[in-house]
Model the fold of this input.
Amino acid sequence: MTGSAPWPEAAAQRMTTPPTRLPEDSGLAPLARAATAVAAFALVCLVVVEGWQVVARYVLNDSPGWTEPLALLCLNVAMMFGAAVGVRNDAHFGFFIAVQAAPAGLQRLLRAIACAVAGAIGAVLSWWGGTLMLDAWDVPMAGASLPQGIAYAPMCLGGALILLFALERLLALYRRAAPGSA
Done:
């Protein structure tokens, strides 16, 4: 725009600096790749199950009862494991424009708070998912010959992964802030 004052150089630099990515050779990278593979496999299974549901209902006129609970299980797996990888890749919900516009010292604090909040949410999801899973394990799932508690397993495992990956990000922030680190 003509006539408007340019951004100060320091603010422009902060606005273009993306959040740091964790190295692909770090200790939890194989776990993140495995979680991504599980989430992708769950999505493929979801498509196959829903495809069969459509064929069975509209072509065979014999709708199976197991497709809905299995599709929900696949969706839960894809959602929770994908969310965990999103936390590790720093691609989760956040106020990134506010963080990037903040001064460098405040950026680190805001990123640490975001990691702590994501970790706390992961811990709650894992705890309550595990509690629900154990409480409902003896109850048969309607429409499928699975225990109802299996529906809560993705919440328990995905929450634990969210917590673990948030702690990894928090540790990476701490290491960058330590004297003598790059």
